[in-house]
Specification:
The complex is a heterodimer of chains A (about 240) and B (about 35). With about 240 residues, chain A is mainly alpha-helical. Chain A contains 7 helices and 2 strands; from the N terminus they run ααααααββα. The chains are: A mainly alpha (about 240), B mainly alpha (about 35).
Chain lengths: ~240, ~35
């Protein structure tokens, strides 16, 4: 059994446990059934933050070492991070429509900063696709990956810096505002999504390695075109 | 639509997206391996 398959098997078990707890734990008095959505919304955003943090760390590692595997890890992590940001935005919108009465509000700083982060990392993936030269691609995306991570603390602390529609953190250093059973359910789902993240990263790295093995060797600057030799040109 | 149906639908779409991405990676990997 490969490393990827083991991770997916572990993720399957953890997700099953998370789903069971999500639908058997008590609901919030005000939000009712909709409070169960936090069991996918919070873990999705946690994974997205972790993914973009890993992209930044891998990008910095590439800038220091210039090793291709750091570039592949940065790409894999950014791609998975974009997926989980999309899931986090969608689940947040579903919850917002049900509880706030509106799915989206641009005046809310948490929502707006998350949307900006989402589009910046789509831009990161677009930049990679638009740069055919492997070295230039790795260098440009590493610089962007190392800078773009600044958005993670900005999104996370936006609810403390600007009091708009989105509520502040439920888990704080001085304790939690959530009942223990709901907290355990969310914690198990956070663990399940973290294992799922590891499995998806491993699968994405497998794809990168498989594609690298069949890809044609990149044309070097001095190999693509034979430069004319001026000494062989006849005078006209 | 009942509250429970909306919640189940939200979970369903979430996991469909994640499983869909995993299947996409699996197919892409197999295609690359087969040349």
């Amino acid at each position: 059994m490969t490393r990827t398959r083991i991770l997916f098997a572990l993720a399957g078990i953890a997700v099953a446990a998370g789903l069971w707890l999500a639908f058997t734990s008590p609901t919030d008095v005000v939000q009712g059934e909709f409070s169960r959505i936090i069991n996918v919304h919070v873990p999705s955003m946690w994974v997205a933050f972790m993914a973009f943090g890993l992209t930044a760390a891998s990008s910095i590692a590439w800038l220091l070492r210039k090793t291709a595997r750091w570039d592949r890890l940065a790409e894999a992590s950014a791609e998975v991070g974009v997926l989980f940001t999309a899931v986090g935005l969608f689940t947040g919108m579903a919850w917002g429509q049900a509880v706030w009465g509106r799915a989206w509000d641009w005046s809310d700083v948490r929502l707006a900063t998350t949307a900006v982060m989402f589009f910046v990392y789509i831009g990161y993936l677009a930049l990679r696709r638009a740069t055919p030269d492997p070295y230039a691609r790795a260098r440009r995306s590493a610089i962007l990956g190392a800078i773009a991570v600044i958005q993670v603390p900005l999104v996370y602390f936006s609810v403390n810096l600007f009091r708009t529609l989105h509520q502040t953190q439920s888990i704080r250093p001085d304790g939690s505002t959530m009942p223990t059973e709901m907290l355990i359910a969310m914690g198990v789902n956070v663990i399940a999504f973290t294992v799922l993240f590891a499995a998806l990263i491993a699968a994405r790295l497998d794809v990168a390695k498989a594609e690298l093995a069949v890809a044609p060797a990149p044309v070097q600057a001095d190999q693509g075109i034979t430069p004319p030799r001026l000494s062989e040109v006849e005078d006209v | 639509m009942s509250d429970q149906a909306i919640v189940i639908g939200t979970f369903g779409i979430t996991y469909a997206a994640i499983v869909g991405y995993a299947v996409y990676l699996h197919v892409r990997s197999r295609r690359a391996r087969s040349g």
